[in-house]
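## Example pair
The file below holds two records. Each record gives the amino-acid sequence first, followed by its structure token line.
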Amino acid sequence: MGTSSVLTRARGLLHIQNQLVRECLAELLSTFILILITLSGSAQKVTSFETKGDTLTAYLAGALAVMVGIYTAGGVSGAHMNPAFSLCVCLTRQFPWWKFPIFVVVQTLASFMSAGAVYILYYDAIWHYSNGTLTVSGPRETASIFATYPADYVSIANGFLDQVIGTATLIVGVMGIMDTRNKGVPKGLEPVVVALLVLSIEVSMCANCGCPLNPARDIGPRLFTYVAGWGPEVFRWVEGRG
């Protein structure tokens, strides 16, 4: 009885009444999980010299991470996890504009934190693979674990168009899945279908720029690599990549 009373009291103290705070915490957690799994899949692939993972496993990690993120916070914040999606639901009047900058900051912060967690998790592997030098280009570069970079042949214009088309495909697909006027997805399986949508885009539109599809997914980890030792080169259209 005493233990039950203590637990009830603790739940009461930890319960957050403010709806915005609850939504921000949910968005922080879902985005953190999304980027943590996505970047870990990339880190495992790169640092193991593709002996414990390859391009397909990295794609699967990213797609399944979307599913986990939606299941984690979809009922509280909607699990946007992506500024592009937040913008879309604002434009369609399904989300208030005043929350948009707040969600973008939370999503970017969560992505930054996730990059830090992956760096800690794969710290020894990253330094072993890179021979003690953190670089953005070259045969032992490790910056691509965290952010996406263009292929050698991709111009700035083509890279921009690539991201517009890829992100638009994602948003249109998600909005179609959510639209109750369309052929419905079995209730509770929406996150699975969204994950399959993400996987389909990854396996078809990833060659040019790595297919981030999410500004926060790229900006947050890129900021982390800048402060963690990769330097300002992470923000340049690196020679030899584009």
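Second record, same layout:
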Amino acid sequence: PPPLPLPSAMLTSRGPALCTALRRAAPGGLASFHSSARRCRAARVAVVLSGCGVYDGTEIHEASAVLVHLSRGGAEVQMYAPDVPQMHVIDHSKGQPAEAESRNVLVESARIARGKIASLAKLTTADHDAVIFPGGFGAAKNLSTFAVDGKDCKVNREVERVLKDFHKAGKPIGLCCISPVLAAKVLSGAEVTVGHEEEEGGKWPYAGTAGAIKELGAKHCVKEVTISFPAHVDTKNKVVTTPAFMCETALHHIFDGIGAMVKNVLKLTGK
């Protein structure tokens, strides 16, 4: 904050005179300076990645949108990923598995994080005000086994710990695209959205995910991906979700929808 407009004589004074000047500068009293500082502190947000590339890791456009909107919202960001092997490696030019090739989720996620990333095992609620999970098939392959096992999936131990810890601490959790299945599996009774529940001629190619979410015991809420209705806020559980690339639509709609998710996550932090 800018320096207080005090007379130069006050800068070296002590005792009642200085206190009186401070009270005049802050009608709410000295406590108002401290409370303002707390309100102005940036929200500290953890972003959990699952690799690099839509078909076997984090969807890069979604990760970028999350980071841009967090930056615009003034948040302090630290990225994390589990230090585990990927389920498999996809040749994105062919859409097919690359045989006899293996990659590490943390190492691949570091590409998106520009090297500034830590093992998910180091992520704690004490260090962060919120956590966000971008989408991409990595959420269903590397952070969980949803891509293979559907409603019977298992969630990575560290991912499960993080979700439960943030939920217990009452700190907001943001998820987009396919990643809401993680909350549906781990947080009993959570409300999430992955968009629509019918394919609608290919516009919602992964609409079947909504059915699996219901089978997991979570509530699915139908939402659009556009800016008008782009995110669902489960205020009870502080879980914010948006469909993103679950919908076949223009990139700017995806970007705007993720922005709404991020904005609501930041709002829930109270920072």
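Notes on the second record: The mean pLDDT is 89. The CA atoms of residues 67 and 77 lie 8 Å apart.
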